[in-house]
Automatic annotation (TrEMBL):
InterPro entries tied to this protein: METTL16/RlmF, rRNA_lsu_MeTfrase_F, SAM-dependent_MTases_sf
Protein name: Ribosomal RNA large subunit methyltransferase F
Cellular localisation: Cytoplasm
Principal place of residence: cytoplasm
Species annotation: Agarivorans gilvus
């Protein structure tokens, strides 16, 4: 068995160089693309145009404007109770995955419909497939255990029919499985990605939101609001992210020949030692911790592969 290893990428305090959201929001341009954003924009205490980031409706409308303005995604809508992800951070994950592919075979383009990706837990927002399809021309399968979330994602795709051939949605009927039942025997994927439920319970998710709000000196009337939205399967599961990712690692062995790079976001740095320990128990060839930064917030994802460097290059050359 090849020796597993950890090859971390240097942390950055800013967004990925190709991320279109490195500059401050141009609210005039965003309103021009999405006029309904105007009613949420007002001067902040410093006199700059902004929105109330603790108002879920304002955050959803900002996401809609960002997706329309930068990625030509029309009529992005999600139910009020579903997770409303921060677009800049989600875009970073996509760009760093593209870098991961490029490093696997520098001679082969990491763009185009031949690059097939699996988004585990695509959710009602469908953000990763939307951005990946627009930025790199990738094709996606988005899986989810919630039929209602898939209906919301499908409504977004229906509003953007040019993406029909690039994004497919699948229901995971077995809530205990991650890849089983989704990856078909004749399929292969260059990438899998995942934003797992980070928390172990609803109470933990709520406490995390309140701690964040206290740190940001949020207004008292918003203290009990999860400003990012989200329901149970999006925010928490028994055992939290560590158990979810551990299950993903174990199951990935069964699809070692069908996926070039597996990956998952890891919200809590404290989860990393146990994840590394689990990785070293698998017959993997390599794994990487790729760090991402947005202001004072640090995030990262872990990626692992069962393919040797030669196999990686051959895989991409054959796409």
């Amino acid at each position: 068995m090849p020796q597993s290893k950890n090859t971390p990428v240097d942390s950055k305090s800013q967004l990925h160089p190709r991320n279109k959201h490195r500059q401050r929001y141009d609210f005039a341009a965003l309103i021009a693309s999405c006029p309904e954003l105007k009613c949420f924009v007002a001067p902040n205490p410093y006199g700059d145009a902004s929105i109330n980031f603790f108002d879920p409706a304002a955050v959803r409308c900002l996401n809609k404007a960002l997706l329309q303005h930068f990625y030509a995604v029309k009529d992005w809508q999600i139910p009020a109770h579903n997770l409303c992800p921060p677009i800049p951070g989600r875009v970073d994950y996509i760009h760093y995955l593209a870098d991961l592919l490029a490093a696997s075979s520098p001679e082969v383009s990491a763009k185009g419909a031949a690059i097939r990706c699996l988004d585990v837990g695509v959710g009602a927002n469908c953000v990763y497939p939307l951005v990946g399809a627009r930025e790199y021309g990738w094709c996606f399968v988005g899986s989810d255990i919630e039929a209602a979330s898939l209906r919301s994602a499908q409504a977004i795709l229906q509003a953007n029919p040019d993406l029909d051939e690039q994004i497919t949605l699948r229901l995971q009927a077995d809530k205990r499985s991650i890849f089983k039942g989704i990856i078909q025997p004749d399929e292969s994927f260059a990438l899998t990605l995942c934003n797992p439920p980070f928390h172990r319970s609803a109470a933990e998710a709520r406490a995390g939101s309140q701690r964040k709000q206290r740190n940001l000196k949020a207004a008292a009337k918003h203290k009990n609001t999860l400003n990012f939205g989200g329901q149970s399967n999006e925010l928490w599961c028994p055992g939290g992210e560590l158990r979810f990712i551990s299950n993903m690692l174990k199951e990935s062995q069964d699809y070692a020949a069908q996926v070039l790079w597996f990956s998952s976001l890891v919200s809590k740095e404290a989860s990393l030692p146990a994840i590394y320990k689990a990785l070293k128990q698998l017959p993997i060839v390599d794994y990487k911790t790729i760090k991402m930064g947005q202001g004072n917030k640090q995030s990262r994802f872990v990626a692992w592969t069962f393919q040797t460097p030669a196999q990686q290059a051959a895989w991409l050359a054959a796409t």
